[in-house]
Write the structure tokens for this entry.
Amino acid sequence: MDVPPLLRLDDRTTVLPIIHGSGQFAWLTRRFLLEHPFDCVAVPLPESFREPVEQGVLELPRPSIVIQRPLPSFESIFEHDGEIDDEEESPDEIPASYVPIDPCQGVIMALRAAMGEHIPRAFIDLETNHFQPFSTVMPDPYAVRHVKVEKFAAAVLPSIPRPSDEHTRERIAYMAARLAELNQRHEQTLLVTSVMEWPWIREAYRLLREGRGRELDTFEHDNVDVARLHSVDPRTLLFLFGEIPFITSLYERARADLEDDENLQIDGVKELLIAGKEKYVAEFGNRARNVTPLLLSKCLKYIRNLSLMNRRMTPDMVTIVTACQQILGDQYALHIAESANRYEHSQPEQGTPVTLGIDQARLPDGEIVSLVNRLPGPPLTWQTISLQRRPTTDEKHRWEYSWNPYSQCSYPPEDERIEMLRNRVCERAQAIMGQDLARTEKFTTSVKDGIDIRDTLRHWYEKEIYVKVIPPSRGQLDACIMLFDSPADPRDYPWRTTWFAEHEWESTLAFFASDFTREMVGPGIGLGSYGGAMFLYPPVPIKDIWLDRRLDFTETLEERLIAAACMHSRGKQIAMMSPLPPGRGWRRLARKYKKQLVHVSMSSFSDQEVKQLRMVHVLNGSEVRSYAADFIRKA
């Protein structure tokens, strides 16, 4: 046996110290067990847990939980002629103990590998009615990838406190006595236990060999209830697993497909971001932001920095969701949170599963009990992240049913943002119109609008400097067209209307958009998506362009907007923002009205801004404006 001396209690017994609830240590446990010839695997669990735990291991990758309820004892309830002793805990206050059947739990992995190799298993912990966990803050388990397990255990040894309670010391002494008993029946025994208990089991085992420890028959077991195996509600697996459920499912997928799972702790975060992107794009479609590789790399960099600030090598779920929220917004972060909590190998169960919470559970009979983990990992800190939730299907149906079709209005903050975009488009179109009139002349007394390097080099032989002269643009831009989706499919944009200005700073707006009644985001709040829009500013009263028979000669939605803008514009130029320059047909249509289209590329604006401005919320009355901000979600 090439086991390091630090991990050996004697020639027949080896202890593998691990951190519970770590996928990295579960991977290390499996590799350690398969690389060395052990004929017995011992785990720090009582014998009463053997049957349900091994049954749960056989049902993996479907997760489950083994719960043992505390039994009331006469001594803990009644003392002194039936009076309740306030210093003792009542049976209702004693938490139930449980064992998570978690694929990323090192002890479960040891049992799983031993059962697969037909190696005998020993459950060597003391039967206790009231279990008291023994854990503390530990280094990030990711370090064990680069440091051997014996060096990792030796490095944390000075920081491991001695057990302060009698309950833990009793358990440790009993496990040492059980190891001594197994030593007489097996050639090589492996104990997989917490790094917190490892040095004290080693000490108790040494005292036992020196004749100063407690013998096995001196211990007394508590009367305990039967441990029962339960399925777990898939929505609450985050409270069961030591790792993120998505990362846990990747470990199981790698196990099933015989893939390399050594780097899943980090590569799984990248795969999580990609999975969240796919679901995000599937929900929002063309309204979704472009989640480019550059933005994903910024998310990963943000995750790394937050992890280092928290003194961690691997990120937790709060770190991942927070970074995605800051880089790509609430909705992408919401999909990341949902994807992170999804475990692909969950299977529908017959009956009612256990619903887990923070240190508590709702049992199949509806009773809520407190829980304590018999395989406790490092202490967890639960934090709150504010994300705007997605409405349920029932809520959408209820809001759609109560919609009043005779009372509709816009959302003022969106009106302000779209008008600001119109101003910027017109300003850039004005600049483009001025550049078309630019000329160059020889430098005399002023550099005018700057030195023209190209003409200066062209006339270098003259030894003269040429400067730019950009005259002020003439005319006004009172019409602006924005084409967000071109060519537009009429089936995708059935809602076509003309809105008139409520204030002096608003434009007369004609647009085509998706049907807002198909996506209700709040009570009296519908969401559509602009396909194209036409703005007339200063606002003027016009006939609805979608009912105006003078425009019936147009064939497409875009042509109708262009024709309407040319018909109602007072200037000779019309600003147009679109992904591509206007084609010959559109320019011919503008010349019919003696107009000129000034193209402004959509790529000159932020993609995130354009995606957000395409969203148009329709409110079922002006009174909805008072609470609309609580339901409106950004893309």
